[in-house]
Write a structure and sequence with these properties.
The complex is a heterodimer of chains A (269) and B (264). Chain A is of the alpha+beta class and 269 residues long. Chain A has a domain at 37-63 and 196-234. In chain A, 38% of the residues lie in helices and 18% in strands. A four-stranded antiparallel beta sheet of chain A has the order 1-2-7-5, with no helix packed on it. The model of chain A has no long low-confidence stretch (mean pLDDT 88). By secondary structure, chain B is of the alpha+beta class. Chain B has one domain (6-263). Chain B has six helices and eight strands, in the order αββααααββββββα. Chain B has helices at residues 6-31, 63-87, 117-128, 134-142, 152-166, 242-260; strands at 35-41, 48-54, 172-175, 191-194, 199-200, 205-210, 229-235, 238-240. In chain B, α2 runs parallel beside α6 and α5 packs across α6. The chains are: A alpha+beta (269), B alpha+beta (264). Chain A binds chain B through residues 1-2, 6-7, 10-11, 13-14, 62, 65-66, 68-69, 72-73, 76-77, 80, 83-84, 87-88, 101, 104-105, 172-176, and chain B through 1, 6-7, 10-11, 14, 58-59, 63-64, 66-68, 70-71, 74-75, 78, 81-82, 85, 92, 164-168, 170.
Chain lengths: 269, 264
């Protein structure tokens, strides 16, 4: 190894490869194979004289396990690149002591309490445990990257990329990262044949990930004749993990980690 | 998912995919003949030695091989952990059960552990196998490396996976099958001592001709020597090749098969 961060970079490069492979895999899927929409008319007109049709999701088959497996490999390498970075910092700082660093990892905490306060008198806090052997001056670099720190750059989506990564990586160690249908963010409905207004309502407070039988939309029309035709367009997506991250989100996490690692490079001349 | 162990089997299948890629890339590296063995004279002893010389200045083993080896370890280890979580009956949440995983206890060569692996398993099983029935714990115990017969591949898996958490499982070249060198005129006069397990790096000694000092010109020795070498991963003294990983994958698959009927 020529540079201490060569291994870190190798892990990062591999994570990007998996992120791109996952995107291609998802895009190559015929999503109609996995789910469809069915509509149920409400039996009675609404009080305002509006006739409502409710749209529901029907899952035909689960998305392939392979998607979660590739996402797991991506998360494993990303998490590994951060942990290896901290290991190299520990080697850098313990050169004089010649002690081999042990048990180090890149800590990711939701708040300062989780980061700095020990759970018991016997166990050191997360910061001390993860950054054992690293001098204060260098620990400050890791402190500044904590998701709650004001110095941490904002992520590309709601929720912090490091927290999403931590969740992905932990999930992958215990079970396959679940791939599931995401709630469509936009539903469009058009009248066919003649013009009449259609009201589209999306359910409030629906989770990002939806399952079989989930209520997706409601279409309201004021009936003027017995036979009124309309076409409804909506696009589903596949999301991964509890947060329902999409393929591009994973690549964005890769980019975020790459930039984070770049901020540590000056420590390794 | 139709069977609770589908995820675990998918992880093993992924590890096998990783292994095929690792095999392909390792062979491509080795077939490019990045090293030659050149006869040289040891200035200290005057003996003729065969020294491995890299054809390029820097260690040419691609780090990517270590990354892929790390994935193999991660996926196989995860498959075993998925199994254990399927076996654990209480829901895994906060508190007890957070450490549930497939334990792998072994006695590494030159171990500094105060207690043997079998005893460490007994002491750790309540932590790692929380919620797992005694009958299933017994089966997991039987798979432990200290019970021998192919189970030692799990020890290598643990080394590979634990190492990968902190740093890359640096790929190291290791010499495989070696025939004694044919040293032309000098063959038969002296006894060739072969170093059978040198790590393949620039300057590694592969063989040494012992019995008398060499009084000729090393550059003039016409040598027939074609060592086979492959890529090893892990930490000394537990270095394994892709063959070791294939065997580990096979053993993990066997463990999953044993437990398959538990869920029927």
């Amino acid at each position: 190894m020529v540079h201490p961060l060569d291994g870190v970079q190798a892990k990062l490069d591999r994570a990007f490869e998996h992120g791109k492979a996952l995107r291609e895999e998802i895009r190559s899927l015929d999503q109609n194979e996995f789910y469809e929409t069915f509509q149920n008319p409400r039996p009675k007109l609404g009080a305002d004289g509006v006739f409502w049709l409710d749209g529901y999701l029907r899952v035909l088959k689960e998305p392939p396990l392979k998607l979660g497996i590739i996402a797991g490999d991506c998360a494993h390498n990303l998490r590994g690149s951060l942990d290896h970075l901290v290991y190299q910092m520990a080697i850098l700082d313990s050169r004089k002591s010649r002690a081999k660093p042990q048990g180090t990892f890149f800590p990711i905490a939701r708040n300062d309490r989780e980061y700095r306060v020990a759970k018991s008198d016997e166990a050191p806090c997360l910061r001390d445990r993860a950054l054992a052997g690293i001098i204060e001056e260098h620990r400050a670099f890791v402190d500044a990257e904590q998701p709650y720190a004001p110095t941490a750059p904002p992520g590309p989506f709601e929720g912090h990329p490091l927290l999403a990564l931590s969740s992905f990586s932990n999930t992958d160690k215990h079970r396959v990262i679940h791939a599931a249908v995401l709630r469509p963010v936009r539903v469009e409905s058009f009248p066919l044949g003649e013009d009449f207004p259609i009201e589209v309502r999306l359910p409030r407070k629906q989770p990002n990930i939806i399952g079989d039988g989930a209520h997706i939309y409601s279409l309201g029309v004021r009936p003027t004749k017995p036979d009124m035709n309309m076409q409804t367009n909506l696009v589903y997506g596949l999301g991964l993990g509890n947060r329902g991250l999409m393929d591009n989100d994973l690549l964005n996490i890769c980019l975020y980690v790459a930039k984070l690692i770049d901020r540590f490079r000056p420590l390794f001349p | 998912m139709t069977h609770p162990l589908d995820g675990a089997h998918a992880k093993v299948a992924r590890a096998r995919e990783n292994l095929k890629e690792l095999d392909r890339k390792s062979v491509a590296f080795v077939q490019a003949h990045p090293y030659v063995v050149a006869p040289e004279i040891d200035p200290q002893t005057g003996q003729l030695v065969g020294i491995l010389r890299a054809q390029v200045k820097e260690d040419p083993i691609p780090l990517e091989l270590g990354v892929i080896a790390g994935e193999v370890g991660h996926n196989l280890r995860s498959a075993l952990n998925y199994l254990t979580l399927c076996l654990a009956e209480p829901p895994i949440g906060t508190g007890a059960g957070d450490s549930t995983q497939f334990p792998i206890f072994y006695d590494p060569p030159g171990s500094t552990y105060k207690k043997p692996a079998r005893q460490r398993f007994r002491e750790g099983e309540n932590k790692y196998l929380y919620g797992v029935r005694p009958v299933h714990r017994t089966l997991i115990e039987k798979a432990q490396p200290y019970n021998g017969r192919h189970r030692e591949h799990l020890a290598f898996l643990a080394v590979l996976n634990n190492g990968d958490k902190h740093r890359l499982p640096t790929p190291t070249g290791i010499l495989g099958h070696i025939e004694p060198p044919d040293l032309g005129d000098y063959h038969g006069k002296m006894l060739a001592h072969i170093n059978r397990t040198p790590a393949v790096h620039d300057g590694a000694e592969v063989f040494r001709v012992v019995g008398a000092a060499f009084d000729g010109d090393a550059a003039q020795v016409h040598m027939k020597f074609d060592p086979a070498y492959e890529i090893g991963f892990g930490d000394n003294p537990m270095i394994g090749t892709t063959n070791t990983m294939w065997r580990a994958a096979h053993f993990v698959e066997l463990v999953l098969r044993v437990f398959h009927r538990v869920f029927v």
